[in-house]
Amino acid sequence: MEFKENRGIYLQIADDLCNQILGGRLKPNDRVPSVRDLAVELEVNRNTVMRSYAHLQDEGVFDNKRGVGFFVAEHAIEKIKEKEKTYFFENDLPGILQKIRLLKLNSSELKKLIQEIHKND
Questions:
Q1: Which of 25, 49, 58, 87 is the most buried if burial means most Cβ atoms within 10 Å?
Q2: Locate the HTH gntR-type domain: which residues (predicted)?
């Protein structure tokens, strides 16, 4: 995993774990890698991974079973999608809408683009 400088490493790790959940690599009730194992794999400090796990636990994505480890929460997918949609609507969509206005794209052009995206799913 390559880290970018514009965002905290622990948040980038959390994002990657969320993407693994959305992509099906980690499923609800799966045990996630131990803090130590993931820290070694990513070549980061264990405290950084622990911060990622605590962040995901606070967001309801992970459950911590004391003495056993962290697990993907039952409703993790819904929690992640809800968070991602909110972020998209607040941060990404306004820029996209501005670009649509500047390019004077019409609804038929946008519909065609959306249909193309759905073909590839």
A1: 49
A2: 7-75
